[in-house]
């Protein structure tokens, strides 16, 4: 080690300043990181409240309320000192071990051994005791049999325990790095360890926990027959609809998802063809469609359809009067949900397919034309087959979205049961049945994961579209006329329908009582968003403000965390290679395929009890958003990172920067647009989310979307629609702001790069 | 603080039995031994896919050797990552950081080497001065021409005073005229500062022009190492003869060997040249196009198949029972017509014998 530091840049300058600083890079820096985490561990153990403080994260009342001796607020050390929670005492051993590593060279095998031992022991012990001892003493019968009844109990982990756990984790990763993993790169090993730990804690653990709870009987033992009874339930797999009765929720979901997948793919393809291969003049307007699903809370389409086709909907009433027929409730059920989901998810298919259709290299089509194929033959034999993997991809995406959709079936479903809403009713309904919710969630998860797996395993290798970044000078040929006309008619018709639906949302928000009293009024906005100016300042008197500000706050806290986790993960995936990278990637992208309702159910089951006891807090909402939206951040990061030439990183490394410095000074600054996009999208998605949220909100932390759903259930459509409209405009301005900012950043960079290319 | 001078910490590089295997069985570099002397410019030359860039990246620490040892100076760096090696590299794409000014780019590595702010700046400016870019320090890379960007990349690598400086096809993004000038500049700086430079290229003319020594690589292994002159005049085998410059490879038979001198026979024509340790029997004769003599007296019967006028010389393609020979002649005033029957012989100096 010493000879290494002396040799490094041996000629930089023999002066003491340079020499000291240079050797600091090699020897001092790692130990600075080590020092930080050792200190963090001790601070977590000796100074911070070990258990969760009831008043919430940002409350510091505990500082003046008996700290550090009061049992509720005491740090671990004080608990042991008072003879309480003695099972925390063994943690002193792993906390002390790394102290012996100070002063040792990183290459000393003992250094690595000490850290690995300390980290693994500490982290392992924390987890073991956390799961063994809960609010009723020992959680497992065999422990009780072994040690007798434990009179004391413990609650959810607080600051102290969390910081201690992180310290152990990062001591472990430093130890692994010191043993030479990934060239001894502490930053990369720690990032991998950190991502694995949080994804395990907040994705795999709750899901696994939920799967187990499907086997639990009423008296708390495991039984396969309980599972079988719930799994083979007729309400799940019944095929009655084939002869006029009702089908089970599983079949309903499956049929619906397949139909929605086909319809959205077909419509998306029409739109994509119109935009890329027709002389249609208002392509930009059609492209604007792609923003819609981002800014629309998922159930809003359902609400608008009710205004149009419901019992007192405009179109229903119009035809009823014209033909003198009795209005029916045909909308409530499969047809309504199908229309709503097709409206909601067509833009997503369009977004996917526009990339695919544009990605088919024009030179292939031009080659076909020079080989004497006419436009129709070219389209049929070259263009379409090349798009095939993209079409399958769009279908699977529509399938997953439909399966996971919760808002529209809730609003429009009627007697048409689908899995996502059935899960919800199993938990919140009169029947409260955790096991049934878990079984339903398993079935739903099986469908979405199969689609997800198919998409990755089968389609992953089959993409024909090649974006090389090299100019492909050709021009896409126009569609053959015989195809262009029907495609244009379908696309324009559907675009018009979408426009009408959105117009209805705005119109509906300013109507007194839809279908009964059609006078225009701002009454709903006033009820929701009134404010009063008083001497003490502004009073937010509107009914919606509470949930509105909660939503904004939670989304604003979640967004930067989501972006950070996403970008670090993307960096690891694009720039580093390590054993198990494929599994790592699959794990991090998995939460995309887990429907929100499943996340919601699994979170209440897992986090209602120690060691992580966070239901009813704002934290659980933030965490659910981070892991629901993480794939968005990962994808944004991967997309823009793969456009950064790898030689930029490499040259930074050969210039003596380590991987953390390279990440911070080269990768991050160049990724500004991606960071902004990830920030805004995770913010917006957090605001529109409903499926997981509806399980996790509490009286104190109500979110906008669940508030609106509550209004809908009380038939208070006016307020619900006014609130939804407001949300749409808030999010539209957020996305607009993003376009403005990113546009400027990108133009700046593109100019620079373009100038480089021309020289 | 004294005025900083950029000097050289040149150190030798040694490869001992180094291999690099990608995945399970893609052998990119197959147990090569290589020694680069301190202060020398050594070129790795070869067709694409021969392993030359992988070799370079192993010196930089961007690829880790699968087996064998790599030494820089007398330190074993085999397992050391790029960050901790005292090596810098000029990339084919230059890899200038687009969000930093020219000065910030050049300063970048210095800030990680323990220099104070002010001295890093001084040294960076000195480096820019050295490559002739004084006054360009505030510009962004995008505001420079390709040649200037190239020089910024060189300056950025130079100011670290690395033990070894690496170039990965540095001229491939420049136009032909600029290429000649930049390669002369690189060579001049290398010689002035006495740097150890390892240079990758696939252009044999570039390699001949700049190198102290050339390492010709083929199929993940080293085909021959030597000075430009040695490689051109005395290639080891047909691959090297053909790859360095242009060579006509003719089947011949060694009739007799007398000490150092061999007598060979092609189509009944005899020629005497250095035997290079070969025994009588079948062999290959390598003849540069300029060493083919076309006359009408002694020699091998041939016919002019093609005659091309290229300004400074005439280029002929001759055919005969030996196959095809490409020849150039300086006489452009009396060109031979296609179809003319001629006698072909070889210059006394130049042609070499190769094993078959």
What does this structure look like?
The complex is a heterodimer of chains A (759) and B (356). In chain A, 67% of the residues lie in helices and 3% in strands. Chain A has helices at residues 2-7, 16-46, 76-81, 92-96, 109-132, 141-147, 159-178, 186-213, 224-231, 234-237, 249-277, 283-287, 292-295, 300-309, 314-323, 334-359, 362-370, 375-404, 407-412, 419-428, 434-458, 481-509, 523-529, 545-575, 581-590, 596-607, 618-641, 646-654, 659-670, 672-688, 693-696, 704-713, 717-758, and strands at residues 133-134, 137-138, 511-513, 517-520, 531-534, 537-540. Residues 1-30, 466-472 and 746-759 of chain A have low confidence and may be disordered. In chain A, α2 (16-46) crosses α7 (159-178) and α32 (704-713) packs antiparallel against α33 (717-758). In chain A, the strands form 3 sheets. A two-stranded antiparallel sheet of chain A has the order 1-2. Chain A has a two-stranded antiparallel ribbon with strand order 3-4. Chain A has a two-stranded antiparallel ribbon with strand order 5-6. In chain A, β1 and β2 (137-138) form a beta hairpin. Chain A is mainly α and 759 residues long. Chain B is an alpha+beta fold and 356 residues long. In chain B, strands 6-7-8-3-9-10 form a 6-stranded mixed sheet, sandwiched between helices. The radius of gyration of chain B is 25 Å and the shape is elongated. The chains are: A mainly alpha (759), B alpha+beta (356). Chains A and B meet through α1, α2, α28, α29 and α33 of A and β6 and α4 of B.
């Amino acid at each position: 080690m010493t000879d290494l530091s002396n040799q490094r840049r041996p000629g930089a300058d023999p002066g003491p300043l340079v020499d000291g600083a240079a050797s600091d890079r090699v020897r001092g820096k790692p130990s600075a990181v080590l020092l930080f985490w050792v200190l963090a561990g001790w601070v977590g153990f000796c100074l911070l409240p070990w258990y969760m403080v009831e008043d919430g994260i940002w409350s510091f009342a505990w500082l003046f309320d008996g700290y550090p001796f009061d049992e509720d607020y005491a740090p671990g050390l004080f608990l042991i000192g008072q003879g309480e929670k003695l099972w925390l005492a063994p943690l002193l051993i792993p906390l002390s071990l790394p102290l012996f590593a100070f002063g040792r060279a990183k290459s000393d095998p003992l250094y690595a051994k000490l850290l690995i031992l300390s980290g693994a022991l500490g982290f392992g012990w924390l987890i073991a005791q956390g799961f063994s001892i809960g609010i009723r003493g020992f959680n497992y019968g065999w422990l009780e049999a072994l040690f007798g009844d434990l009179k004391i109990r413990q609650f959810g982990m607080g600051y102290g325990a969390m910081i201690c756990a992180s310290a152990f984790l990062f001591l472990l990763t430093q130890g692994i790095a010191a043993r030479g993993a990934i060239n001894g790169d502490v930053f990369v090993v720690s990032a991998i360890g950190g991502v694995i730990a949080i994804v395990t804690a907040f994705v795999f653990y709750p899901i696994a926990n939920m799967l187990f709870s499907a086997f639990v009987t009423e008296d708390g033992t495991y039984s396969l027959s309980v599972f079988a009874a719930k799994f083979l339930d007729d309400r799940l797999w019944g095929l009655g609809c084939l002869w006029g009765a009702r089908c089970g929720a599983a079949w309903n979901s499956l049929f619906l998802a397949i139909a929605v997948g086909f319809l959205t793919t077909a419509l998306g393809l029409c739109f994509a063809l119109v935009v890329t291969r027709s002389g249609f003049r208002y392509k930009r307007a059609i492209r604007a469609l792609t923003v819609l699903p981002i800014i629309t809370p998922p159930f809003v389409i359902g609400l608008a359809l009710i205004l149009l086709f419901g019992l007192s909907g405009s179109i229903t009433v119009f035809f009823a009067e014209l033909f003198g027929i009795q209005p029916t409730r045909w909308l409530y059920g499969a047809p309504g949900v199908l229309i709503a989901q097709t409206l909601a998810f067509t833009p997503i298919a369009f977004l996917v397919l526009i990339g695919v259709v544009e990605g088919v290299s024009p030179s292939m089509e031009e080659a076909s034309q020079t080989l004497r194929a006419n436009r129709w033959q070219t389209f049929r034999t070259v263009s379409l087959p090349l798009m095939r993997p993209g079409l399958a991809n769009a279908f699977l995406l529509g399938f997953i979205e439909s399966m996971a959709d919760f808002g529209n079936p809730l609003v429009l479903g009627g007697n048409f049961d689908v899995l996502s809403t059935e899960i919800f009713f199993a938990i919140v309904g009169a029947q409260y049945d955790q096991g049934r919710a878990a079984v339903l969630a398993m079935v739903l998860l099986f469908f979405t994961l199969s689609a997800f797996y198919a998409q990755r395993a089968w389609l992953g290798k089959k993409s024909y579209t090649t974006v090389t970044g090299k100019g492909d000078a050709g021009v896409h040929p126009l569609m053959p006329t015989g195809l262009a006309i029907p495609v244009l008619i379908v696309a324009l018709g559907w675009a018009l329908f979408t426009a009408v639906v959105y117009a209805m949302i705005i119109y509906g928000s300013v109507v007194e009582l839809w279908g009964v009293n059609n006078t225009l009024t701002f009454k709903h906005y006033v009820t929701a968003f009134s404010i009063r100016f008083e001497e003490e300042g502004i009073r937010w008197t509107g009914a919606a403000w509470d949930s509105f500000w909660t939503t904004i706050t939670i989304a604003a806290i979640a967004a930067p965390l989501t972006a950070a986790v996403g970008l670090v993960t993307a960096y690891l995936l694009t720039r580093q290679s390590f054993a198990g990278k494929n599994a790592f990637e699959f794990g991090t992208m998995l939460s995309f395929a887990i429907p929100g309702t499943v996340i919601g159910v699994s979170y209440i089951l897992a986090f209602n009890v120690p060691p992580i006891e966070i239901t009813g807090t704002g934290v659980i909402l933030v965490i659910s958003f981070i892991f629901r939206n993480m794939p968005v951040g990962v994808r944004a990061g991967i997309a823009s990172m793969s456009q950064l030439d790898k030689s930029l990183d490499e040259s930074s490394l050969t210039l003596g920067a380590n991987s953390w410095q390279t990440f911070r000074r080269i990768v991050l600054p160049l990724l500004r647009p991606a960071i902004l996009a990830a920030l805004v999208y995770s913010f917006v998605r957090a605001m529109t989310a409903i499926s997981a949220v509806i399980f996790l909100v509490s009286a104190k932390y109500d979110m906008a979307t669940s508030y609106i759903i509550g209004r809908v259930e009380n038939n208070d459509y006016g307020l619900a629609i006014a609130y939804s409209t407001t949300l749409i405009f808030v999010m539209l301005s957020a996305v607009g702001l993003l376009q403005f900012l990113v546009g400027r950043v990108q133009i700046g960079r593109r100019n620079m790069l373009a100038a480089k290319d021309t020289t | 603080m004294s005025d900083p001078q950029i000097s050289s910490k040149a150190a030798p590089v040694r490869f001992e039995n180094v291999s690099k295997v990608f995945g399970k069985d893609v052998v990119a570099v197959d147990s090569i031994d290589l020694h680069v002397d301190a202060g020398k410019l050594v070129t790795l030359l070869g067709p694409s896919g021969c392993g030359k860039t992988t070799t370079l990246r192993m010196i930089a620490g961007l690829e880790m050797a699968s087996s064998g040892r790599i030494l820089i100076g007398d330190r074993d760096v085999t397992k050391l990552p790029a960050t901790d090696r005292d090596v810098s590299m000029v990339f084919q794409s230059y890899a200038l950081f687009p969000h930093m000014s020219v000065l910030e780019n050049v300063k970048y590595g210095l800030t990680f080497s323990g220099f104070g702010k002010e001295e890093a700046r001084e040294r960076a400016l000195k480096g820019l001065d050295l490559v002739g870019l004084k006054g360009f320090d505030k510009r962004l890379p995008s505001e420079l021409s390709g040649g200037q960007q190239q020089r910024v990349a060189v300056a950025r690598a130079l100011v670290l005073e690395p033990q070894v400086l690496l170039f990965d096809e540095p001229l491939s993004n420049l136009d032909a005229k600029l290429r000649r000038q930049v390669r002369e500049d690189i060579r001049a700086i290398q010689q002035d500062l006495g740097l150890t430079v390892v240079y990758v290229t696939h252009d044999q003319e570039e390699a001949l022009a700049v190198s102290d020594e050339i390492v010709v690589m083929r199929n993940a292994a080293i085909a021959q190492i030597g000075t430009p002159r040695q490689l051109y005049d005395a290639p080891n085998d047909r691959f090297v003869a053909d790859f360095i410059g242009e060579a006509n490879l003719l089947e011949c038979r060694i009739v007799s060997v007398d000490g150092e001198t061999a007598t060979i026979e092609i189509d009944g024509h005899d020629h005497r040249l250095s035997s290079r340790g070969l025994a009588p029997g079948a062999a290959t004769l390598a003849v540069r196009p300029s060493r083919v003599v076309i006359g009408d007296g002694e020699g091998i019967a041939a016919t002019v198949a093609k005659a091309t006028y290229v300004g400074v010389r005439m280029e002929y393609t001759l055919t005969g029972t030996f196959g095809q020979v490409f020849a150039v002649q300086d006489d452009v005033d009396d060109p031979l017509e296609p179809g003319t029957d001629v006698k072909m012989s070889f210059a006394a100096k130049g042609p070499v014998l190769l094993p078959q």
